[in-house]
Amino acid sequence: DTAVSQTPKYLVTQMGNDKSIKCEQNLGHDTMYWYKQDSKKFLKIMFSYNNKELIINETVPNRFSPKSPDKAHLNLHINSLELGDSAVYFCASSQAREDYGYTFGSGTRLTVV
Amino acid sequence: DQQVKQNSPSLSVQEGRISILNCDYTNSMFDYFLWYKKYPAEGPTFLISISSIKDKNEDGRFTVFLNKSAKHLSLHIVPSQPGDSAVYFCAATAEKGKSTFGDGTTLTVKP
């Protein structure tokens, strides 16, 4: 039973398209995150939701819009895709305990051509 | 501004020996430090954490050391096993549970 699941695992799309990545967690965690791992392997936080409320919104182009219909889901919608959006996007969730770490999904590799 | 740095992109050790992975940070407001392990095509997996009020935390073969004055932490793996071969990320947490990650060190444990 996958704790944090992301779909799709791979996404190849053309510039200018709009795409969504879905994320679901079955751990009962209150907080969910989106991280982006670029070609230099940095994991950078994009957004964080706590119980459907946006609590972290880093400097991300407004083409990226997170949606949390309930605390078990955090989807990422990207408009007008650009070449520079190519990366691996990780969803994660956590308990309200800073020492417990995140549980990550397996990532979505987005390639914009 | 890279607040968490792992200066060694790669490390190779012999099976059974000690692996030491290092991490430096700049933000004195970080209150928890964590290590994650990542295999290819998978998400990072949480390994061990340490509070900023401690200097050592141990869990089986994994020990994390924190030197606050030097703003430095390290992960020791003893004994190293081939299955430990992965990318290791250190991370630091401040407000709102936001974790800032280093750029990873690739550990190779040779049989």
Give the end-to-end Cα distance of chain B, rounded to a whole number of Å.
38 Å
> Which term fits the overall shape of chain A?
globular
Q: Helix and strand succession of chain B? A: EEEEEEEEEEE
Order of helices and strands of chain A: EEEEEEEEEEE
What helical percentage do the residues of chain B reach? under 10%
Q: How many β strands of chain A by DSSP?
A: 11
Rounded to the nearest angstrom, the radius of gyration of chain A is 13 Å
Explain what you see:
The complex is a heterodimer of chains A (113) and B (111). Chain A has no helices and 11 strands. Chain A has strands spanning 4-7, 10-13, 19-25, 31-37, 43-50, 53-57, 64-70, 73-78, 87-94, 103-104, 108-112. In chain A, the strands form 2 sheets. In chain A, strands 2, 4, 5, 6, 9, 10 and 11 form a 7-stranded mixed β-sheet that branches. Chain A has a 4-stranded antiparallel β-sheet with strand order 1-3-8-7, with no helix packed on it. Chain B is built from no helices and 11 strands. The radius of gyration of chain B is 13 Å and the shape is globular. Chain B starts with a strand and ends with a strand.
Overview features:
heterodimer, A: 113 residues, mainly beta, seven-stranded mixed sheet, four-stranded antiparallel sheet, 11 strands, 56% strand, globular, B: 111 residues, six-stranded mixed sheet, five-stranded antiparallel sheet
Short characterization:
The complex is a heterodimer of chains A (113) and B (111). By secondary structure, chain A is mainly β.
